[in-house]
Amino acid sequence: MLTKIDELLLQHSTLRISPQVPERSIASISNWLYNQQDAIAKLETRYLDKVHDLVQLVPKSSTPLRRFLEKSTRFRLSSLWKEKEPPLPVYSSHPETLHYSSDTRIDTSIGVVITVLGMGMLIAPLWVLAYTDGIKQRLGVITVFIVVFLGLLAFTTVAKPFESLAAAAAYSAVLAVFLQTAS
């Protein structure tokens, strides 16, 4: 009996730390149920009304940048991400409304954008500092780049705040070296 209680407690703890389902996923399921009239009995779909009880069985972390881009229908339905349709089951009543996209392609593209932005954040200060006179102006340039860097980190990664601050500290150290070499 005690083992059974321990197992239940472990299962409950596991469910409690699971991330909540994104609103967009709930809306998508609700939309599907609306379009597929009587696909599932109404009583069986009432779980969608209890959003705080829903958990992701396979959590997927996405960056704030990706979440922002996925709000756009144009981005989500872009032909760049289109994936070949798998064989559909016979009971699919509206196959023309289904859209398959490649998460790998989206993640790779966002990774390329982040890499290009990162390279820009390393190279741009070199050129700006080379053409800036006076220590106060150079410190102002470095401050601006550090603030932009921290903002980009917060927007493009899933890093925790202390990790972002540590990365910003390392970035400011690199910029301090640039400042000394520009003098």
TrEMBL record:
Sequence ranges assigned to domain DUF6594 in this UniProt record: 7-176
Record field: transmembrane: 110-132, 139-159, 165-182
Keywords recorded for this protein, A-Z: Membrane, Transmembrane, Transmembrane helix
Superkingdom as given in the UniProt entry: Eukaryota
PANTHER family listed in its UniProt record: DUF6594 DOMAIN-CONTAINING PROTEIN (PTHR34502:SF4), DUF6594 DOMAIN-CONTAINING PROTEIN-RELATED (PTHR34502)
Name of the protein in its database record: DUF6594 domain-containing protein
Lineage, top ranks: Eukaryota, Fungi, Dikarya, Ascomycota, Pezizomycotina
